[in-house]
Amino acid sequence: MISPVKGAFFIVFILVLTSFPFKNIILLPINRLELSQGKHMKQILLIEDDTKICDSINNYFNSEQIKLHTIFDGKVALETINHLKPDLVLLDINLPNLSGVEILKEIKERDIRIPVIVITGYISTAVAIETMKEGAYEFVTKPFQLEKLARIVDKALQEKKGEGDSSGFGKIDRPEDENLIIGKSPEIVEIAKLIGQVAPTDAAVLIMGESGTGKELVARAIHRNSLRKDRPFLSVNCAALPESLLESELFGYEKGAFTGAYQKRFGKFEQADKGTIFLDEIADMSLMTQSKVLRVLQEQEFERVGGNQSIKVDVRIIAATNKSLVNCIKEGNFRVDLFYRLKVVSIYLPPLRERRSDIPLLADHFLKKYAELTGKKVSEVSDSAMKVLVKYPWPGNVRELENNIHTAVVMSKGGLLSPEHFPIFNDSKEKLEIDFEKIKKDYHKIMYAVLDPLFPKILANSDGHIYDHMEEALEKTIFDLSLKYFQGNQVKAAELLGVSRNTLRDRMKKYGIF
Fold it and tell me: Could you tell me the domains of the chain?
């Protein structure tokens, strides 16, 4: 039994406690947060200044197993972490008084084991790279599905439950060029997150993708965000050099190793010691050179051409290819052991046609770049031109887009880029030439040659139903031209087309051909 005096004291204590003006914290004041911690209840701290998002996450997450605590202000968040010691943090990037990146760094310095899930509406590849590099568990962009966020939270809590003590990576500076990788599409954001995760390690990376997608840019981004960023980054195009020269380029040679070797030369691996070497188009490397690269990966040593002394190096290898290495292995042109050594982490760069939402951003970036370089006062791509750029399939990917923007800036006479300024819009072929002897009956190649120079204009005037229009137009054109060629002789036209006269007459009626 509680005495009347103690009971009265307890009531007064509660009244005083609940009337205290705690600010910036929703749901529970700090001292009640500490009292609410149970053995099995997970404490999640949400640092977010959007009240609608706070309410929706709070309604979804609060349960018997999870207690969610919400804070609006960055500085107050850091003070609260010391008291609460949360199991997980949900962190917005744009906060008053202190940025999310600064809070993330501070959290990781205090306890690297706390998983931090960054949630943001500000989609930036530079921010994604930096937050993942600084130890964020995941980078989630708004708007997001609560079910998806819940799965990420559950996985993070499960992994934290089973981990022991660990130490973090050393501090790493921000990348020199925040615009190194341009884009806000989900595909590019995922790549940026992966770069942030893999950069601080020494793991070999294999970058795959079509020519012109930006594989070297990704390699440079990995290097710039690594602990080797102050050391050399050397790039070698394996397809640009014959076998004998490539081996000498990579590993160097001793004096007298071959005719013309008048003095010893250091190769790229020695020059890149303590840094990173980027082997572009590695699928074109000979099997013999592949075996020497494999040795560098395994032993971090090699011998110069014409030498017998083993040379030790500390080099990170990043490789890239626009070919399928699996097919190369099947054909006997690539070593399977080297493939798995290179593919510790693999990054696939999608072609530009699969991330069209990035085209306006890339176009604007290249426009500013070449306007400054050429001194042209060009500030904008017209709506009609942008429509062409977004719809065009870009077989040459980002590189082709950049070249088109460069040309358009040079050719412009005002501040606005119009469709006629772009090479893809203009038919650069004065005369259509098709080698029918070579093509023979490959009608796809014939149609491709005919439509290729016209396709940008077709796209510019499309209402989004190109297939239906082209299918009908092609059929009408074939029947019309066949009758014209045989001067209206239906028997010969039907024979040429390989259809019955009834089919021919039906199409003539359908398309109004007389």
Answer: 21-161 (3.40.50.2300), 202-350 (3.40.50.300), 356-421 (1.10.8.60), 436-511 (1.10.10.60)
